[in-house]
Amino acid sequence: MKLLALALILTVVALPAKAEPKPSLSGAVVKVDFSNPGLTPAKWTLVIHPDGSAHFHTDPGQVTAAQLHAIEPGPIDRDATLSQEFADRVFDTIHHHKLFSEDCESHLKVAFQGWKKISYSGPDGHGSCEFNYSRSKDIQALGESFVAVASTIIEGARIELLMQHDPLGLDKEMEYLKEASDDGRLQQVCAIRDILTRLQDDSGVMERVRKRARMLLAESSSK
Q: Nearest CA to 157 among 78, 69, 48?
């Protein structure tokens, strides 16, 4: 009898702790507002849903393409699809920080990187966090990722312009896109899959450009 009781105790102790259920994210949304008057675009907004569907909008600001001596897209307003892994990271990080119940700005004297306001709204509550540089490493990393995603979508719009007006400029631009996606300056290349697909199928551009487009498409599918 004692052996049976001991076995039952050991079984209970050995059972893994039941993981806390994730909150329902039905109807939840994350909105990121970015502003830096020294950049073009000076402002942008990225809205993300739990399934990875997203919408991106820019306000160009006062620094014009002519002043930059470059081909720059005008206002951007388009849907995008981000990876499920990225969307999960966004919502998990926000819930880990209890929907931004504390100030996340570091108040340190660091270089201005642009104001990033992350807002959450969902069935379990709402909250927001605004910072130039966050005291939290994972919120700071999340902010940097949002900037990298926005940069990817803007880069996609720039490639569209080059396809129409300067096909020879695509070679240098695609070289940058590949390098920047490899080192993390650009993230979520899957957000511009449609543009890259059109590029790889365009017989009017250099084969090297089409090859890089195919490579980026393959890499975005495996992530």
A: 78
10 has a pLDDT exceeding 70: no
In contact, 187 and 181? CB cutoff 8 Å: yes
Sign of CA dihedral 23, 25, 26, 32: positive
Quick: pLDDT tens for 164-204.
999 999 999 999 999 999 999 999 999 999 999 999 999 99
**Strand-pair category, 115-122 with 125-131:** antiparallel
Q: Which residue has the tokens 């081909």?
A: 71
Q: Looking at 21-25, 54-58, 118-122, 170-174, which range is the least confident one?
A: 21-25
In the chain, which ranges are E strands? Answer: 29-35, 43-48, 53-59, 77-81, 115-122, 125-131
Domain boundaries, the chain: 27-222
**Of 183, 120, 112, 198, the residue nearest 152 (C-alpha):** 183
Residue 200 near residue 220, CB atoms below 8 Å: no
Classified as helix, coil or strand, 78 is: strand
Q: State how far the Cα of 2 lies from the Cα of 8, in Å rounded to an integer.
A: 10
**pTM of the full structure:** 0.86
What's the token pair of residue 45?
A: 């907004």
**Amino acid (1-letter code) at residue 125:** G
